[in-house]
From TrEMBL:
Its EC number is 3.5.4.1. The lineage of its organism: Bacteria, Pseudomonadati, Pseudomonadota, Alphaproteobacteria, Rhodobacterales. This is Cytosine deaminase. Pfam families: Amidohydro_3 (PF07969). Transmembrane segments: none annotated.
């Protein structure tokens, strides 16, 4: 039988699979698993049900991608990064946003990314939305429509994104109002700037006023003197802010003196902050200099975080835009690259949580599960071991939604050509 062909039966048992033990609440690495599916859901395992021998294929619940930029995605063909630098990305995106981000343009590119994510096996996404007026009204309006259209296929959340110096202005107060009215998450970028504490206080005042979770881009630099994370974590503690807080990037932790980095992580653990690492984008942008080989990877201190009980996740970040020229909204690619870049192998068996359970918990999405009653939303790969999984892109994976294999045909980049000529 073709691996990708499953019989369409009202009750079906997928036998002889393996799954990461941590996703079943067990100790160990890969463990045997059989799942019986009926009515679009996992039911109590029934050895008497019609069965398919899956040949030890690895199975995962569908993925949560908790840090993306759907509004920026796929603008590279019309506005590439001129030199691959962070500054080049900022300038390129700013110009493209002002010139081209109409509602129609943003929606078309969002939809393209979501079709890719669905085909690869992602069922929940948090996206950041550039929210400098008047873009906030445009992009949030599109997001609300897209979220409704994609309900039941990909669950969507959004977080506003502005520089910290915008906080405290009437414009940001309006952005916070739009965010709250859209069921969103309050977000901003923190960097080394005079008056950071006042910006943070104003930010948390608005988060409390509107009852919003918080999501920050933090210290996306290799400058060892940049540690806004420490100020942020202490502010969360001092204000007893009890809504979920997520921080992403944290690149400078990898270059600052180790004692300072570890003391900062102790504060992050005390504050109960969630961390999301974006290794593909950081590897692309950080330590890039013309005619010089990069020395640093840009990945944050994920092993030290895990040792402190900090909830760590990994995510796609940017896709085919000036901040990252590549990517396809594929969480198996993220898992593969994070494992290689961050040496997650040889370091304990629980890292699969960082691509499914942890991001879902951080964002408040429904928890992925293999338990009876859970939706039969699964990603099944022919690989029988981790080395087989990571050696190939798993292009022949099966994605089940409500127990049925979906069409995994990816959208053609040529569909975006009219936008690129705009």
């Amino acid at each position: 039988m073709d691996f990708r062909t499953l019989p369409d039966l009202p009750r079906l048992r997928l036998a002889n699979m393996t799954a990461p033990a941590c996703l079943l609440g067990q100790q160990g690495d890969l463990v045997p698993l059989a799942l019986t599916i009926e009515g679009g859901r996992i039911v109590a395992d029934d050895p008497a049900a019609p069965a398919v021998d899956m040949g030890r294929a690895m199975v995962f619940p569908t993925f949560t991608d908790m840090h993306t930029h759907l509004d920026k995605g796929h603008i590279w063909p019309r506005t590439p990064n001129p030199d691959g630098s962070f500054a080049g990305a900022l300038t390129a995106v700013g110009g493209d946003r002002e010139a081209s981000w109409s509602a129609e343009d943003v929606r078309a590119r969002m939809e393209f990314s979501l079709r890719c994510a669905l085909a690869h096996g992602t069922s929940a996404i948090r996206t950041h939305l550039d929210s400098i007026p008047p873009q906030d009204a445009i992009s949030w309006g599109v997001f609300r429509e897209v979220r409704a259209d994609w309900a039941g296929r990909v669950d969507l959340q959004a977080s506003c994104l502005v520089g910290c110096e915008s906080v405290g202005t009437p414009a940001f107060e309006e952005t916070a109002r739009i965010t709250a009215a859209s069921g969103g998450v309050l977000g901003m970028v923190t960097y080394k700037v005079p008056g950071l504490q006042a910006y943070l206080d104003a930010f948390f005042d608005l988060a409390i006023k509107h009852g919003l979770d918080a999501d920050f881009h933090v210290d996306e630099t290799l400058d060892p003197t940049c540690n806004t994370l420490k100020v942020l974590a202490q502010t969360v503690i001092d204000r007893s802010f009890d809504a979920p807080v997520t921080v992403g990037h944290l690149c400078s932790l990898s270059t600052m003196p180790e004692h300072e980095a570890l003391e900062t992580l102790d504060l992050v653990a005390k504050a109960g902050i969630n961390v999301v690492s974006l290794p593909m984008c950081n590897l692309y942008l950080q330590d890039r200099h013309a005619a010089r080989t990069p020395r640093f990877r840009g990945i944050t201190l994920v092993h030290e975080m895990q040792a402190r009980g900090i909830r760590v996740s990994f995510a796609s970040d940017n896709t085919r835009d000036p901040f990252y020229a590549y990517g396809d909204m594929d969480m198996i690619e993220v898992m593969r690259e994070a494992t290689r870049i961050g040496h997650l192998d040889h370091s304990g068996p629980d890292w699969p949580l960082a691509f499914s359970v942890n991001p879902a918990l951080a964002c408040g999405f429904a928890q992925p599960s293999f338990a009876p009653g859970a939706p039969a939303d699964l990603v099944i790969c022919k690989a029988r071991s981790w080395t087989e999984l990571f050696a190939r892109p798993q292009a022949d994976r099966i994605v089940l939604r409500a127990g049925r294999a979906i069409d995994r045909t990816l959208p053609d980049y040529a569909e975006l050509d009219p936008l690129m000529r705009a």
